[in-house]
Specification:
Number of domains: 3
CATH class of the largest domain: Alpha Beta
Strand content: 15-25%
Helix content: 40-55%
Shape: globular
CATH topology of the largest domain: Alpha-Beta Plaits
Structural class: alpha+beta
Length: about 350
């Protein structure tokens, strides 16, 4: 009787996985992706394919993403078929582990169905800015930088620091990173907002309880030829000498770039590269991303104004609290997701928060 109950339970779980998988196939438009993959492969057979290098690179990147989705979907289908076979053969000892593996695979595919924005599949710029509070806040900004860097490493993505402003005693005033990886923007965009830390201060002898704030910005990297175009007459370029942390090793050549968009007053800087032209390219990319987000905020503001719900983005709108004292808890104030292991969260274990925010937006 017990084996029969187990078998029925396993069959129900597998049936649920199959239903979720069918929904995923529809959400990811797998049939369309098969056709698109064949179209690109046909284009690549043309001897003139690489004459337009930018277009060719974009198509090969698209093909790689299509293959990844199709291969993962194919693997998930086979996993489900294997589970059904195992139930029929009453291989119950291995079923729990196999179910858990398949569940993880289905979950990773489900997350992709929530990422349908125009830049969700691409790279991003992530910035952390310390709030008021001096050294405490700068230390908190650096902790967040480390948290995101570890999350990025776990995803197998690449990260490159574009601009950093060190704190006087500890931590950082701000940092901007380029993140290169599939769905980098789509997954990280929900991290934008104010992050709050409550802890015993490591910077005073009394170990008083201290609250610190930092602002996180996440912007898509918009390639040349995509999205809005910059009017050169609106740009004010300034060049200065980049320096390393602490002001040491000042460069003799003005390679660092400060770019101001005169109509909006937006200012961006880039000083991580040794060559001015590369820093100019990064600064343009940063400015385009900020202008795009500004446009999106205006559209959202208009939509929400009609509903009477709009809140101006700012320091008052916290998205997450990290409490290390007097108890341990990380709580997302938008999705109500809670964790009691802040050490792991600050070590880059952010999937619970990111997935919950993605699902909330669907």
């Amino acid at each position: 009787m017990e084996n029969g109950i187990h078998a029925r339970s396993f069959k129900e779980k597998i049936s649920d996985l199959k239903k979720r998988f069918d929904d995923i196939l529809a959400g990811l438009e797998i049939s369309r992706k098969v056709v698109r993959k064949e179209e690109i492969e046909k284009m690549m057979e043309d001897s003139h394919f690489w004459e337009d290098k930018r277009k060719a690179e974009k198509l090969t990147s698209e093909l790689s993403a299509l293959k990844d989705d199709l291969e993962t979907a194919g693997k998930a289908r086979k996993e489900i078929e294997d589970l059904e076979t195992m139930v029929e053969l009453e291989m119950n000892d291995d079923l729990e582990e196999k179910l858990a593996e398949t569940e993880r695979l289905i979950k990773s595919l489900e997350v992709k169905t929530f990422l349908s924005g125009p830049y969700d599949g691409g790279n991003c710029l992530l910035s952390v800015h310390s709030g008021q509070g001096g050294t405490e806040a700068m230390d908190w900004a650096q902790i967040l930088e480390r948290m995101f860097t570890r999350y990025i490493e776990k995803k197998g993505w690449e990260v490159d620091i574009v601009d950093i402003s060190p704190g006087e005693e500890a931590g950082i005033k701000s940092v901007t990173m380029q993140v290169f990886g599939r769905f980098a923007y789509g997954l990280l965009k929900g991290e934008a907002g104010v992050h709050r830390l409550v802890r015993q201060s490591p910077f005073n002898a009394d170990r008083l309880r201290q609250t610190s704030f930092a602002l996180v910005e996440v912007l898509p990297i918009i390639e040349e030829g995509e999205g809005l175009e910059l009017n050169e007459g609106d740009l004010d370029w300034q060049f200065f000498r980049a320096s390393t942390q602490g002001g040491q090793n000042v460069q003799k050549v003005s390679t660092a770039v400060r770019l101001k968009h005169k109509p909006t007053g937006i200012i961006v800087t880039s000083q991580s590269e040794r060559y001015q032209e590369k820093n100019r390219e990064i600064a343009r990319s940063l400015l385009k991303a900020k202008l795009w987000v500004l446009q999106e905020e205006e559209k959202k503001k208009e939509r929400e104004r009609l509903k009477g719900e709009y809140k101006t983005p700012g320091w008052g709108n916290q998205i997450r609290s990290y409490v290390l004292h007097p108890y341990k808890m990380v709580k997302d104030l938008r999705t109500q997701v809670e964790r009691s292991d802040p050490e792991n969260v600050l070590g880059g274990d952010l999937d619970d928060f990111i997935e919950a925010e993605l699902k909330k937006g669907v």
